[in-house]
C-alpha cells in the first residue's frame, strides 16, 4: 500500500492535535506546519513511526518574512524523505522575531548539524541543544545575519561595482 497524504495527516493529527496544522500540497510536496514547541517531537514521530519511515533529512533552511506579524517573521523548513515509498514531506515552523529559536534535531539526524549552523549563520536562528552552534561560512566577528531582509545587499561605499552588470538600472542623476 502506498503512503497516502491523508494517512500521514490522520496519524499526525491523532498524535499532535492542534499542534500540527495547515496541511496542503505545495508543488507536489505534502506540507504542513508544526508549532515551534513540538516540531522536534513531530519530526521524531515521522522518523520513528513504522508506518511513516521518514528516515532521510533532505534539507533544513531558514526564511525571513519581515512583513509578517511579530510571531511569524522567521520560518524553519524541514524536508524529509521516505525512501521505501518514495514520498517527500515538508514540515514548517514559524518563530518570533524577538529571539528566534527552536530545538535542534541533531539528535535525530546528524546531517542537520551543518544545516542548522548555516541557518544560524545567515538568519540568526538559535537551535537549542545544538552541539556546536557557531558561524560556519561567515566571519566570527560578524554581528549581523546577512540573509535577513534588513541586511543591506551591498556596501554603499564600494566603488568597484557597477550595478548595470548585476541587472540593476541606475537613475541618471547628472541632469
What is the element layout, followed by pairings?
Elements (H helix, E strand, L loop, with lengths): L4 H12 L3 E7 L2 E6 L4 H10 L7 E9 L9 E9 L4 E9 L5 E3 L8 H12 L2 E3 L47
Parallel strand pairs: 2-5, 6-7
Antiparallel strand pairs: 1-2, 3-4, 4-5
Subunit structure: NDH-1 is composed of 14 different subunits. Subunits NuoB, C, D, E, F, and G constitute the peripheral sector of the complex.
Subcellular location: Cell membrane
Catalytic activity: a quinone + NADH + 5 H(+)(in) = a quinol + NAD(+) + 4 H(+)(out)
What can you see in these coordinates?
The structure is a single chain. The chain has 175 residues and is α/β, with parallel strands linked by helices. The chain has a single domain, classed as 2-Layer Sandwich (Beta Polymerase, domain 2), CATH 3.30.460.80. 19% of the residues lie in helices and 26% in strands. It has helices at 5-16, 39-48, 112-123, and strands spanning 20-26, 29-34, 56-64, 74-82, 87-95, 101-103, 126-128. The longest helix has 12 residues, at 5-16. NDH-1 is composed of 14 different subunits. Subunits NuoB, C, D, E, F, and G constitute the peripheral sector of the complex. It is an enzyme of class 7 (translocase).
